[in-house]
Design a protein that fits this description.
The chain is an alpha+beta fold and 123 residues long. It has a single domain, classed as Aspartate Aminotransferase, domain 1 (Alpha-Beta Complex), CATH 3.90.1150. The chain has helices at residues 4-13, 61-70, 96-110, 113-122, and strands spanning 17-19, 26-28, 31-41, 46-57, 75-76, 86-90. The model has no long low-confidence stretch (mean pLDDT 95).
Length: 123
């Protein structure tokens, strides 16, 4: 089971990552790769932060569909994310290793190619 603290620790270990305005929000060079899911409530005007669910960038619709099909208990989406390259992740359903892979892949989607290449040469 992963926690918000795991998200913060892993995200900040990635090069040039900066925290965003929410507890699960992180960006590389101003481009967000993970954030707190804001669930629609009531009459669809209001949203409530769900600190137990993060949204993370993915590398296109194919990757998104693979994750959604692989484990609907871990991964889901909403109408708001239709056509958007991100998947919603229930933190209590993923382990830390899987979380690390998701965050690193999300970071790779947003980081400049040069920075990804430098990162790859170190790992």
């Amino acid at each position: 089971m992963a926690t918000a603290e795991d998200v913060q620790r892993i995200a900040l270990s990635l090069p040039e990552t900066q925290p965003g305005e929410d507890p699960l929000g992180f960006a590389v060079r101003g481009k967000s790769f993970t954030w707190t899911y804001m669930e629609r409530v009531g009459d669809r005007r209001g949203r409530v932060a769900r600190p137990d669910v993060m949204a993370v960038r993915v590398d296109g619709a194919g990757t998104k569909q693979e994750l959604l099909a692989a484990d609907p208990e871990k991964f889901f989406t909403t109408d708001h994310y239709t056509g958007y390259p991100a998947v919603l992740v229930r933190l209590d359903a993923v382990d830390v290793d899987e979380l690390s892979e998701l965050l690193t892949d999300g970071w790779r989607c947003q980081a400049p190619k040069r920075l990804v290449k430098e990162f790859d040469s170190l790992v």
